[in-house]
Design goal:
- The protein is of the alpha+beta class and 513 residues long.
- It has three domains: 116 residues, Copper Amine Oxidase, Chain A, domain 1 (2-Layer Sandwich); 187 residues, Beta Barrel (Thrombin, subunit H), CATH 2.40.10; 128 residues.
- The strands form six sheets. Strands 2, 28, 29, 30, 31, 32, 33 and 34 form an eight-stranded mixed beta sheet that branches. A six-stranded antiparallel beta barrel has the order 22-23-24-27-26-25.
- A hairpin with a 2-residue loop joins strand 10 and strand 11.
- The chain starts with a strand and ends with a strand.
- The N terminus is likely disordered.
- InterPro entries: Chloro_Bact_Ser_Proteases, Cu_amine_oxidase-like_N, Mao_N_sf, Peptidase_S1_PA, Peptidase_S1C.
């Protein structure tokens, strides 16, 4: 998902297509039961989010640990999975998590960290099995055993949240209480402000006499900000009162009361798929633009609930309001997909904002101050070693809709011609399987990286090369001679640049996705 903070960046993109290997299907006809060392459990059912899954092969247990066919389980939990038969490796991804399993080994690598498992992933008749509880819980789901039904029941994080709020006392929503778009604007236009920081532009929702709710990414690297109202009043921001980086939310305090109608925050509101919603924000700086659409879906990532909507948004809409037809704030507009004809936008569900407000204390309000920016104003005079550490800390991942692409092995050096040369490697498996699908996001990350490097090192000639590198036990064909190197003992290394950027006062970028 793209954050919708507006920053002007200009660059030409040359994109070369790359066809990656299709994932082979893993279907089979299981004729035999589990082996004598396994517990026979063919009758165990698997339910995910209230629906029984139709499995291609039966669940079985090993030393009391239940394993299920990988594909059906991961599809139900909205995570992608890949099995590399040659290396006996399983790769599971969602937008923020990467789990790597080796067949037969009781260890997993979860976002780069080694974690022990009670049972190993395995294959039976070409079907990949994974331990249900381990995988589901790593994906923030809840796993329960229903003895009466002889079933394993898995509830995703989002499903749990829906159950929680459905069980609360219902508010009566009557058709005659719905507001028209004009009434929504009349009530709440003054409650949404445009936020201009020294780094970016976004939107905000007034929630108190001197408090504004916005996205964390709008304010995270700012050292000053002004909130503009529809009455042409400018309110200087004193600082950040509270924030939730994970949910991408922040509460700001202005130096003076704003005398604007605050929006009420609640844990209970109507936000069903198919309901009409209204977005108010400042896309591209067009203050308090109103758009309408439907709730297209609900999603969750890493414990954060999102509302998908086709109400139109753009850069600058971040931190704006998403109202339902009853005037309830249901979301805070936060991100969207560029170059899509489907008008795909996302808003953080409003109950996360209610949780953030509950966490505030009076002392936090009094001590509101701007956050320390993650990147310095300048790197002029910095040692190459310090620049390299900064790159490793701040540019080690690219967030995409297919998960995080890890960027490793950052090196910084100065060459004989005086250029500052940055090199790194992209996760080779991510590149092979998702490089084409995430080309736009990887390109945008590259341009943003170039923008930041030029800002911090404006007088330098800079080259950044991000490469694909992977070793094979055969000599791949169809590559340039300098892209394949013999390592000996039947091993070959493939290495070539997938992002090549050069910049000073202008930017040149060539990509290979």
């Amino acid at each position: 998902m793209k954050k919708l903070g507006y920053k002007a960046i200009v660059g030409s993109l040359l994109v070369a297509g790359l066809l990656f290997a299709p994932v082979s299907g893993l279907t089979t006809d299981i004729a035999a039961a589990a082996s004598a060392t396994k517990e026979a459990t063919a009758s165990i059912q698997l339910w995910v989010d209230g629906k029984q899954l139709k499995l291609s092969a039966p669940i079985y247990k090993e030393n009391g640990v239940a394993l299920a066919p990988m594909t059906e389980l991961l599809n139900a939990l909205e995570a992608s999975s890949v099995y590399e038969k040659k290396t006996q490796t399983v790769i599971i991804r969602n937008s923020t998590l990467t789990i790597t399993l080796a067949i037969g080994q009781k260890e997993a690598i979860v976002n780069g960290k080694t974690v022990k498992m009670d049972a190993a992933a395995t294959t039976k008749n070409n079907v990949v099995y994974v331990p249900i509880r381990f995988i589901a819980e790593k994906l923030e789901a809840k796993v329960e055993w229903d003895q009466k039904a002889n079933a394993i029941k898995v509830k995703s994080w989002y499903y749990q949240q829906m159950e929680k709020y459905e069980n609360e006392e219902d508010t009566v929503y009557r058709e005659e209480d719905k507001l028209s778009s004009k009434e929504i604007v009349d009530y709440f236009d003054e409650s949404v402000v445009m936020i201009m920081t020294n780094k970016a532009l976004g939107s905000g929702v007034v929630i108190g006499e001197d408090l504004i709710l916005t996205n964390y990414h709008v304010i995270s690297d700012a050292t000053s900000a002004i909130a503009n109202s529809i009455y042409y009043d400018d309110f200087k921001v004193k600082g950040v009162v509270a924030y939730d980086k994970k949910a991408d939310l922040a509460i700001l305090r202005t130096e003076e009361p704003m005398d604007l109608l605050p929006v009420e925050l609640s844990y209970s509101y109507l936000a069903r798929k198919g309901d009409r919603v209204y977005a108010i924000g400042s896309p591209l700086g067009f203050m308090n633009t109103v758009s309408t659409g439907l709730i297209s879906g609900h999603h969750y990532e890493s414990g954060v609930s999102y509302i998908q909507t086709n109400a139109q948004m753009d850069h600058g809409s971040s931190g704006g309001a998403l109202f339902n037809e009853y005037g309830e704030l249901v979301g805070i507009t936060t991100s969207g997909m560029d170059n899509s004809l489907a008008d795909i936008g996302f808003a953080v569900s409003a109950f996360h904002a209610a949780e953030l407000v509950e966490s505030m204390t009076e002392d936090m309000v009094v001590k509101a101050t701007f956050l320390t920016p993650p990147l310095p104003d300048t790197l002029k005079g910095a040692a190459l070693e310090d620049i390299q550490k900064l790159m490793k800390k701040e540019f080690s991942f690219v967030q995409t809709l297919k998960g995080d692409a890890e960027v490793t092995s950052w090196q910084v050096r100065r060459d004989a011609e005086g250029w500052l040369v940055f090199t790194a490697n992209i996760d080779p498996l991510f590149y092979l399987y998702y490089g084409t699908a995430t080309a736009g996001e990887l390109s945008l990350w590259s341009v943003n990286l170039a923008h930041e490097l030029h800002r911090m090192l404006p007088d330098e000639k800079i080259q950044v090369t991000i490469s694909f590198q992977r070793d094979y036990d055969f000599q791949p064909r169809g590559l340039a001679s300098d892209e394949v190197t013999a390592l000996g003992e039947g091993k070959w290394r493939v290495r070539y640049p997938v992002i090549d950027m050069q910049l000073k006062d202008q930017l040149y970028i060539k990509t290979r996705f």
